[in-house]
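Progress note, project year one: complex with glutathione.
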Amino acid sequence: MLRLYHFWSSTCSRKVRICLAEKKLEWESRHVDIVNKRDNFKKWYLKINSNGVVPTLEHDGRIVIESNIILEYLDDSFPDTRLKPNDPFQISKMRFWLDRAETVVHKNVNVLSWNRRHIPRMKHLSHEQHLKILEQFPNPETRMVRINRLEHGVSNADEEFSKARLSEFMDAMEEELNGNTWLAGESFSLADIAIAPFVERFEANNLDELIDFRKRPKIGSWWGKIKSRES
Ligand SMILES: N[C@@H](CCC(=O)N[C@@H](CS)C(=O)NCC(=O)O)C(=O)O
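Model obtained:
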């Protein structure tokens, strides 16, 4: 049995839900409220995900964490509908984009979401209450980054830096899609799944330069094809 611990608007959770839908797998949902109830810092959740983040997959009692690893795990465990290319070079491409989704896109989208989404959601809390929440992040690096953001804010310069990294990322994606229909070649793959929720987040955050598809027409047509999929 597959059970997914996830949060509705989390980009990393979305990746896994898209993969489950593409593969037409039955799954049980456990919603983890990472905003108000902070279920992700509760003892029971930290037992299955010691980083205190979503998503977490449970498969027949076994726990898998990290969204990109979950994607590959699902594809390897349920190979009927393949979302991984067969060719080793294309697999390397797919892993390249999975890596960029985490190390470039997720990281920088987080910076840009701070003023736009995080602060408005937390405005009912005092500084001390907010700090107490951030101090609960078990991962020392995440904890330090979040506390620094609370103490010093995200400046215009920080935002411009992140926007520039995302813009470079989008240029690289445009170049990749110049010769290929999908990110890892001629077939839709986990690479496309891993990036799609972030493009949706660029739209939700009104990051106009990133979603100006006149500038990056290949991504525009890729995005149209992604949105027309049932998943
Ligand atoms: N590398 C992890 C990142 C997971 C992650 O950061 N998840 C976010 C939501 S997208 C989260 O749970 N954040 C908890 C919080 O902000 O309190 C993965 O890909 O699974």
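The first strand starts at residue 2 and ends at 6.
The mean pLDDT is 97.
No further modelling is planned for this target in the current period.
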